[in-house]
Automatic annotation (TrEMBL):
EC number: 2.1.1.228
Chain segments annotated as transmembrane: none
Role summary: Specifically methylates guanosine-37 in various tRNAs.
Catalytic activity: guanosine(37) in tRNA + S-adenosyl-L-methionine = N(1)-methylguanosine(37) in tRNA + S-adenosyl-L-homocysteine + H(+)
An annotated GO BP: methylation
Keywords: Cytoplasm, Methyltransferase, S-adenosyl-L-methionine, Transferase, tRNA processing
Gene assigned in the entry: trmD
Family: Belongs to the RNA methyltransferase TrmD family.
Species annotation: Limnobacter parvus
CDD domains registered for this protein in UniProt: TrmD-like
Protein name, as recorded: tRNA (guanine-N(1)-)-methyltransferase
Main location class: cytoplasm
Higher taxonomy: Bacteria, Pseudomonadati, Pseudomonadota, Betaproteobacteria, Burkholderiales
Residues annotated for S-adenosyl-L-methionine binding in this entry: G117, L137, G138, D139, F140, V141, L142
Residue span, tRNA methyltransferase TRMD/TRM10-type domain: 5-229
A single MF term (Gene Ontology): tRNA (guanine(37)-N1)-methyltransferase activity
Amino acid sequence: MTGPRFDVITLFPDQFPNLVELGVVGRALKKQLFELNCWNPRDFTDDPHRTVDDRPYGGGPGMVMMAEPLVRCVSAIRQARGDTAPVVFLTPHGPLLKQADIRGLSNLGKGAILLCGRYEGVDQRFIDDHVDITFCLGDFVLSGGELAVACFVDAWVRLLPDVLNHALSATQDSFEAGLLDCPHYTRPEVFENKAVPDVLLSGNHAKIESWRFEQAKAYTNRFRPELLEDIHVQAGTTASSKKA
Protein backbone atom coordinates (compact mmCIF):
# COMPACT_ATOMS: atom_id res chain seq x y z
CA MET A 1 0.00 0.00 0.00
CA THR A 2 1.61 3.24 -1.17
CA GLY A 3 -1.42 5.53 -0.99
CA PRO A 4 -2.71 7.45 2.01
CA ARG A 5 -4.17 5.70 5.03
CA PHE A 6 -7.34 6.92 6.71
CA ASP A 7 -8.15 5.77 10.22
CA VAL A 8 -11.71 6.75 11.09
CA ILE A 9 -12.88 6.88 14.71
CA THR A 10 -16.60 6.18 14.60
CA LEU A 11 -19.36 4.59 16.67
CA PHE A 12 -20.54 2.94 13.43
CA PRO A 13 -17.44 1.15 12.11
CA ASP A 14 -19.46 -1.43 10.18
CA GLN A 15 -21.60 1.16 8.41
CA PHE A 16 -19.06 3.89 7.65
CA PRO A 17 -17.36 2.12 4.71
CA ASN A 18 -20.71 2.15 2.89
CA LEU A 19 -20.41 5.93 2.62
CA VAL A 20 -17.22 5.75 0.53
CA GLU A 21 -17.73 2.56 -1.47
CA LEU A 22 -19.59 4.17 -4.38
CA GLY A 23 -18.25 5.61 -7.64
CA VAL A 24 -14.63 6.47 -8.27
CA VAL A 25 -13.70 6.43 -4.57
CA GLY A 26 -15.15 2.96 -4.14
CA ARG A 27 -13.20 1.74 -7.15
CA ALA A 28 -10.05 3.34 -5.75
CA LEU A 29 -10.58 1.46 -2.49
CA LYS A 30 -10.98 -1.84 -4.33
CA LYS A 31 -7.80 -1.10 -6.29
CA GLN A 32 -6.04 -0.40 -2.96
CA LEU A 33 -5.08 3.12 -3.97
CA PHE A 34 -5.78 4.12 -0.38
CA GLU A 35 -6.37 2.33 2.91
CA LEU A 36 -9.42 2.70 5.14
CA ASN A 37 -9.62 1.48 8.73
CA CYS A 38 -12.49 2.08 11.15
CA TRP A 39 -12.05 2.16 14.91
CA ASN A 40 -14.80 2.04 17.51
CA PRO A 41 -14.00 4.00 20.68
CA ARG A 42 -16.24 1.56 22.58
CA ASP A 43 -13.44 -0.99 22.16
CA PHE A 44 -11.27 1.20 24.40
CA THR A 45 -13.55 1.29 27.45
CA ASP A 46 -13.42 -0.78 30.65
CA ASP A 47 -17.04 -0.86 31.82
CA PRO A 48 -19.52 -3.60 30.85
CA HIS A 49 -21.70 -1.09 28.95
CA ARG A 50 -18.75 0.17 26.85
CA THR A 51 -19.68 3.75 27.73
CA VAL A 52 -18.24 6.50 25.54
CA ASP A 53 -20.47 9.42 26.57
CA ASP A 54 -21.71 11.12 29.73
CA ARG A 55 -23.77 14.10 30.85
CA PRO A 56 -22.18 17.54 30.42
CA TYR A 57 -20.85 19.36 33.48
CA GLY A 58 -22.95 22.45 34.10
CA GLY A 59 -26.10 20.74 32.92
CA GLY A 60 -27.92 21.08 29.65
CA PRO A 61 -29.33 18.75 27.01
CA GLY A 62 -27.50 15.97 25.25
CA MET A 63 -24.44 13.92 26.06
CA VAL A 64 -20.73 14.52 25.54
CA MET A 65 -18.16 12.10 24.11
CA MET A 66 -15.68 11.20 26.85
CA ALA A 67 -12.00 11.99 26.42
CA GLU A 68 -10.43 8.81 27.78
CA PRO A 69 -11.77 6.27 25.24
CA LEU A 70 -10.80 8.64 22.43
CA VAL A 71 -7.27 9.09 23.81
CA ARG A 72 -6.84 5.34 24.07
CA CYS A 73 -8.18 4.88 20.57
CA VAL A 74 -5.83 7.46 19.06
CA SER A 75 -2.89 5.89 20.91
CA ALA A 76 -3.71 2.48 19.43
CA ILE A 77 -4.06 3.99 15.95
CA ARG A 78 -0.71 5.75 16.20
CA GLN A 79 0.93 2.53 17.32
CA ALA A 80 -0.60 0.69 14.37
CA ARG A 81 0.31 3.40 11.88
CA GLY A 82 3.80 4.11 13.13
CA ASP A 83 3.71 7.71 11.87
CA THR A 84 2.63 11.21 12.90
CA ALA A 85 -0.46 11.60 10.72
CA PRO A 86 -2.64 14.47 11.94
CA VAL A 87 -5.84 13.98 13.91
CA VAL A 88 -8.55 15.84 11.98
CA PHE A 89 -11.90 16.82 13.50
CA LEU A 90 -14.77 18.16 11.41
CA THR A 91 -16.55 20.65 13.68
CA PRO A 92 -18.42 23.98 13.49
CA HIS A 93 -15.51 25.48 15.42
CA GLY A 94 -13.05 24.95 12.58
CA PRO A 95 -12.30 27.15 9.58
CA LEU A 96 -14.26 26.49 6.39
CA LEU A 97 -12.76 23.54 4.54
CA LYS A 98 -11.50 24.54 1.10
CA GLN A 99 -10.08 22.70 -1.87
CA ALA A 100 -6.65 24.19 -1.18
CA ASP A 101 -6.73 22.59 2.29
CA ILE A 102 -7.51 19.18 0.83
CA ARG A 103 -4.79 19.50 -1.79
CA GLY A 104 -2.25 20.67 0.79
CA LEU A 105 -2.96 17.70 3.04
CA SER A 106 -2.98 15.27 0.12
CA ASN A 107 0.49 16.43 -0.87
CA LEU A 108 1.76 15.12 2.47
CA GLY A 109 0.80 11.64 1.30
CA LYS A 110 0.39 9.88 4.63
CA GLY A 111 -3.35 10.34 5.18
CA ALA A 112 -5.04 11.22 8.45
CA ILE A 113 -6.77 10.09 11.64
CA LEU A 114 -10.38 11.28 11.40
CA LEU A 115 -12.73 11.72 14.34
CA CYS A 116 -16.49 11.41 13.76
CA GLY A 117 -18.14 13.44 16.48
CA ARG A 118 -21.49 12.46 18.00
CA TYR A 119 -23.97 13.62 20.60
CA GLU A 120 -23.75 17.21 21.91
CA GLY A 121 -20.00 17.37 21.36
CA VAL A 122 -16.57 16.07 22.37
CA ASP A 123 -14.82 16.73 25.68
CA GLN A 124 -12.79 19.88 25.04
CA ARG A 125 -9.74 18.42 26.78
CA PHE A 126 -9.41 15.82 24.05
CA ILE A 127 -9.75 18.48 21.37
CA ASP A 128 -7.17 20.74 23.03
CA ASP A 129 -4.52 18.07 23.52
CA HIS A 130 -5.04 15.52 20.75
CA VAL A 131 -6.69 17.15 17.72
CA ASP A 132 -4.21 18.69 15.28
CA ILE A 133 -6.52 20.16 12.64
CA THR A 134 -10.17 21.25 12.64
CA PHE A 135 -12.37 22.09 9.66
CA CYS A 136 -16.02 23.00 9.10
CA LEU A 137 -18.00 21.91 6.04
CA GLY A 138 -20.46 24.77 6.29
CA ASP A 139 -22.89 26.65 8.49
CA PHE A 140 -25.23 23.74 9.16
CA VAL A 141 -25.50 20.90 11.67
CA LEU A 142 -25.34 17.14 11.04
CA SER A 143 -26.45 14.37 13.37
CA GLY A 144 -22.92 13.00 13.42
CA GLY A 145 -19.51 13.36 11.87
CA GLU A 146 -19.64 10.33 9.61
CA LEU A 147 -21.09 12.18 6.61
CA ALA A 148 -18.62 15.04 7.05
CA VAL A 149 -15.66 12.67 7.28
CA ALA A 150 -16.89 10.75 4.22
CA CYS A 151 -16.94 14.02 2.27
CA PHE A 152 -13.40 14.76 3.46
CA VAL A 153 -12.13 11.35 2.36
CA ASP A 154 -13.92 11.60 -0.99
CA ALA A 155 -12.43 15.02 -1.75
CA TRP A 156 -8.94 13.77 -0.84
CA VAL A 157 -9.04 10.43 -2.68
CA ARG A 158 -10.23 11.88 -6.00
CA LEU A 159 -6.97 13.86 -6.14
CA LEU A 160 -4.87 10.69 -6.07
CA PRO A 161 -3.18 9.49 -9.26
CA ASP A 162 -5.18 6.91 -11.27
CA VAL A 163 -8.43 7.54 -9.36
CA LEU A 164 -10.19 9.65 -12.00
CA ASN A 165 -10.49 8.46 -15.57
CA HIS A 166 -8.77 11.61 -16.88
CA ALA A 167 -5.74 13.08 -15.15
CA LEU A 168 -6.90 16.65 -15.82
CA SER A 169 -10.38 16.17 -14.32
CA ALA A 170 -9.36 17.15 -10.80
CA THR A 171 -7.26 20.13 -11.88
CA GLN A 172 -10.20 21.59 -13.81
CA ASP A 173 -12.73 21.26 -11.00
CA SER A 174 -14.38 24.15 -9.22
CA PHE A 175 -12.13 25.95 -6.70
CA GLU A 176 -8.87 24.51 -8.08
CA ALA A 177 -8.00 27.84 -9.72
CA GLY A 178 -10.06 29.84 -7.27
CA LEU A 179 -13.05 29.90 -9.64
CA LEU A 180 -16.19 27.86 -10.12
CA ASP A 181 -16.14 25.44 -13.02
CA CYS A 182 -17.53 26.59 -16.38
CA PRO A 183 -20.88 25.29 -17.73
CA HIS A 184 -20.82 22.00 -19.61
CA TYR A 185 -22.88 20.57 -22.48
CA THR A 186 -23.37 17.18 -24.11
CA ARG A 187 -25.65 15.58 -26.70
CA PRO A 188 -28.11 16.40 -28.16
CA GLU A 189 -26.80 19.52 -29.84
CA VAL A 190 -30.21 21.20 -29.47
CA PHE A 191 -32.44 20.51 -26.47
CA GLU A 192 -35.77 22.28 -25.85
CA ASN A 193 -34.81 24.90 -28.45
CA LYS A 194 -31.52 25.65 -26.69
CA ALA A 195 -28.37 25.00 -28.71
CA VAL A 196 -24.87 24.23 -27.53
CA PRO A 197 -22.69 27.38 -27.82
CA ASP A 198 -21.07 27.54 -31.26
CA VAL A 199 -17.56 27.89 -29.89
CA LEU A 200 -17.75 24.39 -28.37
CA LEU A 201 -18.48 22.98 -31.83
CA SER A 202 -15.71 24.93 -33.56
CA GLY A 203 -12.83 22.56 -32.89
CA ASN A 204 -10.66 25.59 -32.06
CA HIS A 205 -9.16 24.53 -28.74
CA ALA A 206 -7.63 27.91 -27.97
CA LYS A 207 -10.98 29.64 -28.39
CA ILE A 208 -12.71 26.92 -26.37
CA GLU A 209 -10.29 27.31 -23.46
CA SER A 210 -10.67 31.09 -23.56
CA TRP A 211 -14.48 30.76 -23.60
CA ARG A 212 -14.42 28.34 -20.67
CA PHE A 213 -12.22 30.66 -18.64
CA GLU A 214 -14.46 33.64 -19.27
CA GLN A 215 -17.54 31.58 -18.44
CA ALA A 216 -15.90 30.39 -15.22
CA LYS A 217 -15.26 33.99 -14.22
CA ALA A 218 -18.82 34.97 -15.09
CA TYR A 219 -20.31 32.05 -13.16
CA THR A 220 -18.13 32.84 -10.17
CA ASN A 221 -19.13 36.49 -10.25
CA ARG A 222 -22.79 35.48 -10.43
CA PHE A 223 -22.91 32.73 -7.82
CA ARG A 224 -19.84 33.17 -5.57
CA PRO A 225 -18.47 36.72 -6.03
CA GLU A 226 -16.50 36.47 -2.79
CA LEU A 227 -14.18 33.97 -4.50
CA LEU A 228 -13.13 36.67 -6.97
CA GLU A 229 -12.38 38.97 -4.05
CA ASP A 230 -10.16 36.28 -2.55
CA ILE A 231 -8.27 35.93 -5.84
CA HIS A 232 -7.70 39.69 -6.01
CA VAL A 233 -6.44 39.75 -2.42
CA GLN A 234 -4.07 36.84 -3.07
CA ALA A 235 -2.82 38.47 -6.26
CA GLY A 236 -2.21 41.72 -4.44
CA THR A 237 -0.36 39.97 -1.66
CA THR A 238 1.85 38.12 -4.15
CA ALA A 239 2.63 41.34 -6.00
CA SER A 240 3.53 43.13 -2.75
CA SER A 241 5.80 40.26 -1.75
CA LYS A 242 7.64 40.44 -5.06
CA LYS A 243 8.15 44.20 -4.69
CA ALA A 244 9.45 43.72 -1.18
